[in-house]
Amino acid sequence: MSKINWGVLGTARIGVQKVIPAMQSGQYCSVTAIASRDADKAGRVARELGIPRCFDSYEAMLADPEIDVVYNALPNHLHVPWSIKALGAGKHVLCEKPLALNPGEVEQLIRARDAAGRKAAEGFMVDTHPQWLKARELTREPGFGSLRAIMGFFSYDNRDPANNRNILDHGGGALYDVGCYLVHGARYVWGDEPLRVVSVLDRDPVMKTDRLSSFLMEFPGGAASFGCSTQLARYQRMQFVGTGGRVEIEIPFNAPTDAACRVFFDPGDPSGAHTTTYAMPICDQYTIQADSFSRAVLEDGPVIVPLEDSLRNTRILEAVFESAVTGAWVTLNGGAGLNPSRGHP
């Protein structure tokens, strides 16, 4: 089977250090170009990573007829505008998360995808990682019982005001950057949508981004409680508790590529004496993601995280922001009535 030619928008660290090298080792991926508004940076990254072509403008790369798919690694507020332009140029698009800053943007992107007749997806790589597949499988085992609660936390410490993660108008803050994973992961394993949410957000007094977000999502038959932060010690964990057992993902999001990921199952025994540990095969979640998207293009099959799923996730994030402002539960009704404030206080 032939390979798909990818072009990369932007020289973000996650792309340069993680995603691009992973794509280059894919069975169905060929990274043929990278674009940056800084010509020197584009050239340097292209040389370091062995990418054949580099462009000093995003428009020039989109005009390249040899590129089939665009990986959009630009800052959050540029995800939808440049994904729409890429679709308009006839390219398929895999966009970094969070896909958008409000539901209306996702709806625009869906219309652009349909008009272009191309494929587009949000880069939630967890959906194809073996450890998440295993966790979801275990929550459906008879010994686990019925899923009733999910608990998760995701944090790191970055206080640089010049970093896009800390610029409010660029879609910075904990909820957009890492909280979106918690929401998506809960929906992925639960296999259902939350009914309502309530939240408390602590904002940085200078940067105004949410530096600590705590929120509760009510699901049919249970609830998920989460915390995420941009100014705490690095930590991440996901736990799923049922009527008969508990499943835990040790490193759910920044999965290592040089060691086995572990998923734990215990049958309601806090001592850990009867805990079963499942060690996953060593893999790179970004390679799996890029190969999956490439195959969807090659075979004209479905993408793993379609934009319709992203719309639901974005509506939930919007509701979390709204609840923090109103101090009340926000019922999820398809996005109607939610304030498209992009998380501004």
Structure characteristics:
6-stranded parallel sheet; 15 strands; 2 domains; Dihydrodipicolinate Reductase, domain 2; Rossmann fold; alpha/beta; 9-stranded mixed sheet
Mass-distribution shape: globular
Radius of gyration (Å): 20 Å
**Structural class given helices, strands, pairing?**
alpha/beta
Instruction: Please bin the fraction of helical residues.
Output: 25-40%
Summarize this structure briefly.
The chain is of the alpha/beta class and 345 residues long. The protein is 33% helix and 26% strand.
3D architecture notes:
With 345 residues, the protein is of the alpha/beta class. It has two domains: 4-125 and 287-306, Rossmann fold, CATH 3.40.50.720; 128-281 and 314-331, Dihydrodipicolinate Reductase, domain 2, CATH 3.30.360. The chain has helices at 13-24, 39-49, 58-62, 79-88, 103-116, 130-138, 174-190, 285-299, 307-326; strands spanning 4-9, 29-35, 53-55, 69-72, 92-95, 120-122, 147-157, 196-203, 210-219, 222-229, 231-242, 246-249, 262-266, 276-279, 330-331. The strands form two sheets. Strands 14-13-12-11-7-10-9-8-15 form a nine-stranded mixed beta sheet. Helix 4 (79-88) packs parallel to helix 5 (103-116), helix 5 (103-116) packs antiparallel against helix 9 (307-326) and helix 7 packs across helix 9.
